[in-house]
Write a structure and sequence with these properties.
By secondary structure, the protein is α/β, with parallel strands linked by helices. The protein contains nine helices and ten strands. The protein has two domains: about 130 residues, Nucleotidyltransferase, domain 5, CATH 3.30.420.40; about 170 residues, ATPase, nucleotide binding domain (Nucleotidyltransferase, domain 5, 2-Layer Sandwich). Helix 3 crosses helix 9 and helix 7 packs parallel to helix 8. The longest helix is centred in the last third of the chain and has 32 residues. The relative contact order is 0.19.
Length: about 350
């Protein structure tokens, strides 16, 4: 007897990427992302423009995801969507579309916490990838979040430590802005850092709790350092760009690794995962692989396409929820501020 295949559509619209994905029994069949180029000229995401672009993109993106999966919308078993956290206008586009589609097809609606989905992307079925065993620790790092989360099962998340001010992605982007690099600057810092000397310049690391983070002081320190150097030599950035980027990146990654070491010491958990947009950073990936070798950790590093905001992570979370019938009521509302444990 063959078991019936389960098809889940995921819709992601928390910020400035409109994405739709179809997953069949945990395997990604499609993962379509429409980026919004318009924000680059403003140096950051403009919420009003983001929600308008989502309205334009959502129908063609969903249509493309279903088509690429080789199915029809009638084959779907449930619609999962990002409930929050995120930009309210953007979330509302995805929420209302998901509700309408679920109602029209008369299938379950599944609400997904965006931050949980980043972590649960580790459970997408891929060749040669192992799922992290419970309990494991996940470092979630993005433009809006920096947290150390203990994951006890698919639906139990406990924040062990988090940033008290800025997120790590913000620290990368704002450092890049100080250097005159275009938005988003984080990937450029990573790119230039690979050609520089990480020990050339030193920046003071903030002193906060064992498992907590703070990046606003570091950001200010970098700003003052650059201002001072430019007074001495107006061509300082130009002449030292690679070394500055390497030194900034080295400092930020050192902070992250120190906190993870403290977490392993305190919890005894040696299964360590990373998630979120900043987990695409090459230095973090390299340092985690070294930690596996030197400290006996088992590390779980997501594929690049599942690090930034994408609907495959929403669909896999929807699939896991569908299997235990964790459905949402049609009255469910988008929530701009949502904790990973909610």
């Amino acid at each position: 007897m063959t078991t019936k295949k389960i098809y889940i559509l995921g819709i992601e619209s928390s910020c400035d990427d409109t994405s739709a994905s179809v997953i069949c029994d945990g395997i990604v069949l499609s993962n379509i992302i429409a980026n919004q180029e318009i924000h680059a000229k403003y140096g950051g995401v403009v919420p009003e423009l983001a929600s308008r672009a989502h309205q334009q993109h959502i129908v063609p993106v969903v249509h493309q995801a279903i088509k690429q999966a080789g199915i029809t919308k009638e084959d779907l078993h449930a619609i999962s969507f990002t409930k929050g956290p995120g930009l309210m206008g953007s979330l509302l586009v995805g929420t209302s579309f998901a509700k309408s589609l679920a109602l029209g097809l008369d299938i379950p609606l599944i609400d997904v916490n965006h931050m949980q989905a980043h972590i649960l992307a580790h459970f997408i079925e891929e060749k040669d990838t192992d799922f992290p065993p419970f309990p494991f620790v996940c470092l979630t790092i993005s433009g809006g979040h920096t947290q150390i989360v203990k994951v006890s099962d698919h639906f139990t998340f406990e924040v062990l430590g988090e940033t008290i001010d800025d997120a790590v992605g913000e620290a990368f982007d704002k450092s890049a802005k100080i250097l005159g690099l275009p938005y988003p600057g984080g990937p450029l810092v990573d790119k230039y850092a690979q050609q520089g000397d990480p020990k050339k310049f030193s920046f003071t690391k903030p002193k906060v709790g064992d498992l907590d983070f703070s990046f606003s002081g570091l950001k200010t320190g970098i700003l003052y350092f650059i201002q001072k150097k430019l007074k001495e030599n107006p061509a300082f950035i130009e002449e030292n760009l690679f070394d500055i980027c390497a030194s900034i990146q080295h400092t930020i990654v050192e902070i992250l690794m120190e906190k993870l070491k403290n977490t392993v010491t305190q919890t005894g958990i040696k299964h360590i995962a990373i998630a979120g947009g900043v987990s695409a950073n090459s230095e973090i990936r390299k340092r985690l692989q070294l930690a596996q070798k030197h400290w006996g950790w088992t590390t779980y590093i997501p594929k690049f396409e599942y690090t930034t905001d994408n609907a495959a992570m929403i669909a896999i979370t929807g699939y896991l929820k569908y299997k235990v019938e964790k459905y949402a009521d049609i009255s469910v509302k988008a929530v701009a501020r949502l904790k990973v444990s909610e």
